Amino acid sequence: MIVLVVNAGSxxxxxxxxxTDGKVRLMKALAERVGHPDAVMEAAFAPGFEPRAVxxxxxxVPACLDRLLDLLESDPASPIASxxxxxxxxxxxxxxxxxxxxxxxxxxxAFAALVQCEELAPLHNxxxxxxxxxxxxxLPDTPQAAVFDTAFHTSMPAKAYMYxxxxxxxxxxGIRRYGAHGTSHRYAAQQAAxxxxxxxxxxxxxxCHLGNGGSITAVNHxxxxxxxxxxxxxxxxxxxxxxxxxxxxxxxxxxxxxxIGFDEMDxxxxxxxxxxxxxxxxxxxxxxxxxxxxxxxDAALAVDMYVYKVQKAIGSFYxxxxxxxxxxxxxxxxxxxxxxxxxxxxxxxxxxxxxxLEKNDVTGxxxxxxxxxxxxxxxxxxxxxxxxxxxIARETDALVGGEAEAAR
Length: 408
Ligand code: AMP
Known about the structure:
The chain is an alpha/beta fold. It contains 15 helices and 14 strands.
């Protein structure tokens, strides 16, 4: 099945066209700084993936998608002859609230519920909904699915998802932990079960999605029982530009001291903090590791803090579960940085997570799912390559294919 995967953000749009049967990517496109004067969009087609610029000046996110569809229709190198070749659309939705515990086909009822979830992720969900509307207009006969970042976490018990605030904020505003990166955590857990050769339902796992955004999840018998991200993806670990968890009183203190408003404070916490804020250099872990190696003290502090916060989160979820069989590392940093994995697990050996330094070495191993703990480590350590777009495409394929099967 040919699936168009649409991942819309507040000022970004990522799309891929995926042939799910052979897990083949046919097109990749990325628009950034959408809505700003320097907005750019590039699309690339298989097999060479030569990037070509798409003119998106003055476009909002759905308008960028509209331009991309025009390109797919008109470009001689397009991997499809017409838009009718797209058999299904998979939309990544950041917040599904309490409405959605699974991916779903988007019928009228589901779309109405999606619109109700907009206020939970005001930067992301409205853009995704606008793309769904546009696609309904341009591809009215093509089924669309919604795949949620939050769905995997709807299994959390109340003691994990409630905040110690007056209950009215939960009842009136839906303020609770929703978590994120659910598609990645679910996938990492399943891949780890495959690597260990045991049913997911028998295992206790701690899955670590360590990328530009980062979150850690306790997965008990295949279900998320707690996760570090919260009401929004700002809570939890220190991230590329996000602070993660801090004393909430700091927020009002800075606002008062600097006389700044909500939007400015929001921007500082989401865009200027984390690895970027502490290192003063970059949000990219590779740059910061290189600077730390070259003797930059602030970069070294940022890496130390990052490692320490990951260690503490793994330790707290070890305590939250009744058994831990494996810790699973995934996403940009988790998959690729042998150095950070070595530093993280150097502090966790006393809990029975014992890294094998040779297996941890990345040489020739990038993209290979594998166990990297010593053979008799009481708790195994696994590395799994995450691929969010492919997951969304395959979930969409399963939903649309299942529906077609049921109609037969
Ligand atoms: P993601 O959001 O999953 O694409 O991950 C992006 C993050 O992974 C960035 O901070 C990158 O610097 C980091 N990353 C990718 N490769 C490496 C590597 N070899 N060593 C350290 N960090 C890496």
